[in-house]
Task: structure prediction
Amino acid sequence: MHRPHRSIEVFDISLMAVVTKAMGAFLVIMLLLMPYYSSGSLGDKSAAEAANELKEAQQKLQTLSQQLSGRNPQEIAKALQDALDRLARAETAIAQLKRDNDALNAQARRLDSQNAELRDELAKADAERKKVRLSGLLINSECTDVRLEYGVMTKSEYFETAGKRRLTNLLNHLLTLGTNVTSTADEAVAANPSQAAVPLGHGMRFDHSIFQYDAPPGDYYLVVASTAKSVTKIDDMDGHVLKHVPTACHALLNFTYAVPTKNILSSFWIREIALSHDDYAVMPAELTVSEDKVSWFNPSAEALAWLRDQIAHAEKEEAPSKALVQ
Result:
């Protein structure tokens, strides 16, 4: 009785171990690379190709493991090589898929950035749409020794000097939000010499101050300040020191608001204000701006306290006999 030849069986057992480990490796690779499968249009094709290649390689290995018995080594080696080729193609497809996925992520980040910019632009457009245009005009022919400025302000207003210092004392420099133009009767004569013979308060012989501001909803102060006509360096910037009027005098104010989106134009008519000898500045009214109207109120105690503080910290040409704010 001859002992059976066992060399082929030893080869079969070793090959089965190799194939089984390879199949396990395929499964591990497939699980690790699963996050790179993308549903985006750019990665659909690569993901499908990689999945098909892995599935086919897995099926081939499973079939091969079931058919090891009774197969010769050449057939087994060929089948194993075929599985390895499929795995290589799957790895190539997965690498391409990763590149596509990275491109999709970069594109998504660009789109997120563009969407954020668009949202900011829409928010700014909406804020602009809600603004109400405030306009004012002051006409003066009595307070001839001073320069009266007219504007709209808030208690949170400030400006920066050339040295980047933030200043909240505004009456010497920044009398209004928005834009302001102030000129005196003397400047009118300088520009039009023919007006020299015209009496003050006639022709072009008026002091005037104009402001305009596109105001978002909120609370504001209307302020008239009495300043010196000459320009002085204050906080390293050109400004006008406060100066009270020599004698009591009067000026005329006009205030108008417009809501362009609603075709609203309204005026609070012309109002007379009085400045006494002790006044450096007066506050004719407080304003509350909403999206479609402006309400006019007499100044509150808090508003008048803010104005007194502004006057106290401003540069002045001469000290008043007493502090009085209307």
